[in-house]
Description:
Blueprint: H1 3-15, H2 23-30, H3 34-39, E1 46-49, H4 54-58, E2 65-72, E3 76-82, E4 88-90, E5 93-97, E6 102-105, E7 112-118, E8 121-127, E9 133-143, H5 145-155, E10 156-157, H6 181-189, H7 197-204, H8 208-212, E11 219-221, H9 226-237, E12 241-246, E13 250-256, E14 261-264, E15 267-272, E16 275-280, E17 286-294, E18 297-305, E19 311-317, H10 325-336
Antiparallel strand pairs: 1-7, 1-10, 2-3, 2-9, 3-16, 4-5, 5-6, 6-13, 7-8, 8-9, 11-17, 12-13, 12-19, 14-15, 15-16, 17-18, 18-19
Amino acid sequence: MSNLENLKKQKIKLLAEKKPPRAREAAKQLKISEAEFVALSCGESCSQLDSSRFEQLLTKLEPIGEVMALTRNEAMVLESHGIYKDVSSAHGHIIINTKQIDLRLRVSAWKYGFAVEENARQSLQFFDQFGEATHKIYIGKKSNVIAYESTLVEFSISAGFNSLLIKDKPKIKIENLAIDVAALQKDWQNLDNVHQVNKLLTKYAITRPQAYRHLGDKAAILAKDSLRTMLEIASTKKIPLLMFVPNYASTHIHNGTVNKLMEMGPWFNVLDPGFNLHANMDLISETWLVIKTLDQQNSYSMEIFDEHQQPLMMVYLHPDAKQDINMQNTWQSTLQNLTQG
């Protein structure tokens, strides 16, 4: 029996279990990437998509109507229901900025894509060169299935498991370099917009948490369960939020309030109509209160990181609420009350 046949047999066995694992966990059990796990079904319940046309594909999804967009990293999963419309595409990047679906997609970092049918559920799933999921789109009850199937005819190709060349993900090395603290603090104070932060980090060759440890009163470590507490307060006080969930190649954004909260094991969840957030609290390593002074006004954010100091989530007060002084004060005091010691 070939390795491919053996893997297919093991996949069938896993999916036949009373409670079959999700693809991400099943792939780990088979010691392959999630992209490879999905590709095992090519020619049956799965077809591969033309990777050279991902940008074009995403600009043609509007006729399908309402779908569910899903983006995740190791600890956070964000899901939004809406329509992929008003798509801006340029140089390997896609921007969708609607109230329901707000995405920044670095499609140039997407390597593989598949149309998948599993448990009577259809989806488009995209992966990077390491076989990790970058973004997924699920067909729902309100979707136009005929338009979806027409899209598959146009963008599917004849390929499968053997066409994948999955690379090993490099281990993240965090170096503790000497930092000119005074210069770092001055540069931080002189930031004009949030997009300059990455340039600053590159200049000093440091991670965000490394920078935050040297910012004095502009950053403070928060308690481990701060995300849960913040969401509980935001739900009670109806604080409108701007929530970012990034991974290597995509950033998914939620605009608005959170309401229905539910804890299930290590997962703390927001289960609202049209929007879900699933946060694995066990995988949060550091949470920070960060203050940036932009346009002579302090901007307070909660920023969450994994054990490798990589960002899991960033949360701000929604810009529409920044003219409401009472809401600003509520947001700032919420974060300040979560600081350790």
